[in-house]
Amino acid sequence: MSKTRIAFIGAGNMAASLIGGLRAQGLDASQIRASDPGAEQRAKVNAEHGIEMFADNAQAIEGADVVVLAVKPQAMKAVCEALKPNLKPEQLVVSIAAGITCASMNNWLGAQPIVRCMPNTPALLRQGVSGLYATHEVTAAQRQQAEQLLSAVGIALWLDTEQQLDAVTAVSGSGPAYFFLLIEAMTAAGEKLGLPRETAAKLTLQTALGAAHMAVSSDVDAAELRRRVTSPAGTTEAAIKSFQADGFEALVEKALGAAAHRSAEMAEQLGN
Ligand SMILES: NC(=O)C1=CN([C@@H]2O[C@H](COP(=O)(O)OP(=O)(O)OC[C@H]3O[C@@H](n4cnc5c(N)ncnc54)[C@H](OP(=O)(O)O)[C@@H]3O)[C@@H](O)[C@H]2O)C=CC1
Ligand SMILES: O=C(O)[C@@H]1CCC=N1
């Protein structure tokens, strides 16, 4: 990465997290450029990260080794088709757009080496996790560049098939929202049980943080950690039994299935 030049197309939330991660890893501001249609957004990203910003996507990718597509999935086709005449065959394209396949991007861009990724929003705190899939055209050195890019904001995991990205999207791409939903629900339930809202929120948040730290750092799995909290005939058992009687695991499986299905459906709807 020491000399890699990276251009971001779209400088919204995810791009800004990646740019922040790269800068924190020691990439010089002169190695990173980004384009965005919003003048305010350009000024904000420039002020935060000191990188050169462009209104014109074609200008931003000039001389870049890696071009990161960080626009909404709905904008991908138009963005790719407009970039096509300006892309060089050796430029690696890294897409973080949900539900846009490599085949669609190759249709729009021509034959480019492509790495398709699915990061998640904890990337903002460099606590993210991403799944990565590379097409055959991607060289070993380019794989390394893509991995280093995503590793700047968390853990990067290579996938064997592109289809697995639908599952990654369901588990970790959308995943932060499931934990936020649980935090919301536990806070509300704590309040209903008689706690002040602020107390219920603090108890919930610190419990989530502590449990996540334990699950990450422990040498036993989550099921064993759960068993250790669950005293026979105690309070946890009462709660877990209630969750399971209402089909908790099936509910989670159905929800993640819906997310994966939506990812595949987006590929069909937006891919032509
Ligand atoms: N948010 C998440 O949790 C995750 C998102 N992703 C993916 O990341 C991508 C970006 O998401 P996110 O950062 O949240 O979205 P944002 O809306 O924050 O960022 C997208 C940016 O692209 C800009 N943009 C719009 N059109 C163009 C264009 N033609 N050329 C250049 N820039 C343009 C937008 O400007 P304007 O707002 O003015 O239109 C906006 O600033 C999406 O494809 C999403 O699927 C992946 C993993 C997780
Ligand atoms: O909800 C979405 O479609 C995007 C992709 C993963 C997280 N946010």
Describe what you observe in this structure.
- The structure is a single chain.
- This protein has 272 residues and is of the alpha/beta class.
- Helices cover 54% and strands 13% of the residues.
- The protein is built from twelve helices and eight strands.
- The chain has helices at residues 13-24, 39-49, 57-60, 76-83, 102-109, 140-151, 164-173, 175-192, 197-217, 222-229, 235-245, 248-270, and strands spanning 6-9, 32-35, 52-54, 66-69, 92-95, 114-118, 128-134, 154-158.
- An eight-stranded mixed sheet has the order 3-2-1-4-5-6-7-8, sandwiched between helices.
- Helix 4 (76-83) links the parallel strand 4 and strand 5.
- The protein is elongated.
- The model has no long low-confidence stretch (mean pLDDT 96).
- Bound molecules: NADPH dihydro-nicotinamide-adenine-dinucleotide phosphate and (2S)-3,4-dihydro-2H-pyrrole-2-carboxylic acid.
